[in-house]
Amino acid sequence: MKQNTGAGYFMKTQLKLLLLSLAFMGQLNTVFAKKHGQEAIDSLLRELATAKEDTNKVNTLYSLSINYLEINPGEAAQRLQQTIDLATKLGWDNGMAKGNLVLGVVNRRMGDFKQAKEHINRGLQLYTKLGDKKNIAAAYINLANVYADDGDNPHALGSYFKALKIYEELDDKLSIARYSGNIGLIYSNLENEDKALEYYFKALKIYEETGDKHGLGALLGNIGLACMHKGEYNKALEYYFKAVKIDEEEQDRHDQAITTGNIGHTYVKLRDYARGIAYIEQALKMDEELEDKNFIAMNLQYLGEAYVSSVQDSNSRFTTGERNMRLGKAIAALHRGIEISREIELPDGLQNCYAHIAAAYRLLGDYKHAMPYMDSFYAIRDSTYSNDNKVKLANLATKREEELKEKQIALNKLAMEKKRDERIFFGIGSGLLLVIISGLFFSRRAVQKEKDISENLLLNILPEEVAEELKEKGSADAKMIDEVTVLFTDFKGFTQLSEKLSPQELVAEINACFSEFDHIMYRHSVEKIKTIGDAYMAAGGLPTPNSTHAADVVKAAIEIQQYMHRHKAERQAEGKLFFEIRIGVHTGPVVAGIVGIKKFQYDIWGDTVNTASRMESSGAPGEINISQATYELVKDKFTCVYRGEVAAKNKGMMKMYFVR
After folding, report:
1. Any long-range contacts for 278-282 (C-beta under 8 Å, 24+ apart)?
2. Distance between CA 163 and CA 128 in Å, rounded?
3. How confident is the model over 148-179, as pLDDT tens digits?
4. What is the three-class DSSP state of 409?
5. Domains defined for the chain, CATH in brackets
6. Does the pLDDT at position 128 exceed 70?
7. Using CA atoms, how far apart are residues 464 and 466, in angstroms rounded to an integer?
8. Do the beta carbons of residue 615 and residue 586 sit within 8 Å?
9. Which residues have a Cβ under 8 Å from the Cβ of 570 and sit 6 or more positions away?
10. CA gyration radius for the chain?
11. What span, in angstroms and rounded, lies between the C-alpha atoms of 156 and 147?
């Protein structure tokens, strides 16, 4: 399994996830401390030839594996298995523990994340049995690193939190700093830059107190990166330049190159293209010297993007010759970026290079060359939903408690405003909508304010097209829509869980989830229909029919699934109760229209709605269950696993699929 290291990954890996955080790494026999490489291996092999079957031989095998780690991971794995086998035969828990833990690290290096997790968890169990807190923390760190490599940021976060708690108990300040920085990195991967900065600054404070500079440059670089993602470009540059200074002092050319490239990219965002291009070219030169193909590809992408952006900028005043020269340089850089990204299998890097090179050709008026690159861009973008070997997408910032409080304050404020504005009434009778605004004695400004409030309230309960029809005609006709895709979600064990939470906690948790679902629906052009208790209902392809409704809804379902997975991991890490979700999807005809006179709403009816509900109830927690009808529309876009014919209440046996 090859690790995904695309362009998004490039930007978020300045802080190094420590490969070996093992307290026992200093326990190697001192007789070999001054020997390195092949000399140490030869010495250990001679000792091994005459060693007795005891714990000393376990240590020798273990030491041998450590020496093989850098030069021959496969041999290291074999020696570690021998370490574990002999320690198991002797019943020596410590030997089994350290053998399993380091074998997990080797598995991680070799890209076998499943085996890595199994061995590290075995080591964790043994160290827990031994009560060895330092190595329990080390196991959690290495487990977190595997999850991070595998794109499972929520589980990585949970493991880091467990390690951090132990280091705080041990008052190990440097470890607290290092792994607070890594927690910040995971939050950044989850696009929660505010939370990332909280942990970065926690780490920075410890570095400043202790005067330790090891890793400080990378941390400052990541602070700069978080600021850049927030659009705070000048603040980002401030931290980037501090990072470069530390990297120069520490003679860390690798991190210096990364940060230099990010400085250039930030100047491009500030539209200072000349300075941006100069820094990117400087970073590219360093990457070439280091022979680091990952970051060569990244900076080639940055360079191409910079030239394209300079031409697209409305403030640019280039002659035709200068313009074409810049686009030619962009195409040359991006061609090379594509070549290297293909060579080292970086799909995200390819995707970004394809987008920029297509833009360059379009600006030249060369649509014949632009179109194949756009096709390649869309092919990679769409495939990210179905390729299990790619890093899982984490597109949303996880909502934290302070955000829930802010939402509650906003809701309370809205409720007060609604109560204050009771003079606004809505009614629908005989197909006529009357919006009565009491304000005959108010100024025109006050009247307009009340009208704006009415408009916003109307759009909160009706689709925009339906609201416009109501305003223009005074009524909205019910419509038969031949094909829409309906989504239902439901929380498993909601009743039992609701008994364990206070009313305030329950409402806050539902609000957090449903608010996130609302944002997801908006991004994928899916219409929220309503919520019924703990169920959420939405539909794609209405009120205006379209041909992408099935794919839109499945993409939204996948994003809900990912959000709930992250949210569950965070609540588990905080020791809080959590919801598990079932998602069901079905495609077919519906009738759509407005119902009610008071508290009216836009709703849909038909057998399609009932079947979508059955897809949800016939599914499984954490899964997206789709019908045969939906499957036929999305089978070429997503990976679907056939479940066979499953009994659905009042529907009989139905073919169903899980989207993976």
Report:
1. 280/306
2. 13
3. 888 888 899 999 999 999 999 999 999 999 99
4. helix
5. 17-170 (1.25.40.10), 401-470 (no CATH), 478-659 (3.30.70.1230)
6. yes
7. 5
8. yes
9. 154, 157, 158, 398
10. 29
11. 5
